[in-house]
Design brief:
Blueprint (H helix, E strand, L loop, with lengths): L1 H10 L2 H8 L6 H13 L10 H12 L8
């Protein structure tokens, strides 16, 4: 939940937060890639853009703000 996120933020656990809020949240393809890399003993790939961020961009577009992410 949100309180846990703020607690980890206060503790300085940025890598844990990045994992929780990207790969482990709603990035289905990223979860599969991470699992496969762990099983094969390979380096972990970078996560993709989370679905929640894509939803935010669509909401901003609905407000008339066109955001381009590079």
């Amino acid at each position: 939940g949100e309180m846990e996120v703020w607690a980890l933020y206060a503790y300085g656990a940025s890598n844990v937060l990045k994992e929780m809020l990207t790969v482990k949240s709603d990035d289905v393809k990223g979860r599969a890639k991470i699992y496969e890399a762990i099983v094969k003993g390979e380096n972990l790939p970078q996560g993709d853009v989370p679905e929640s961020f894509k939803v935010l961009l669509r909401e901003l577009l609905g407000l008339g703000l066109e955001i381009h992410v590079e």
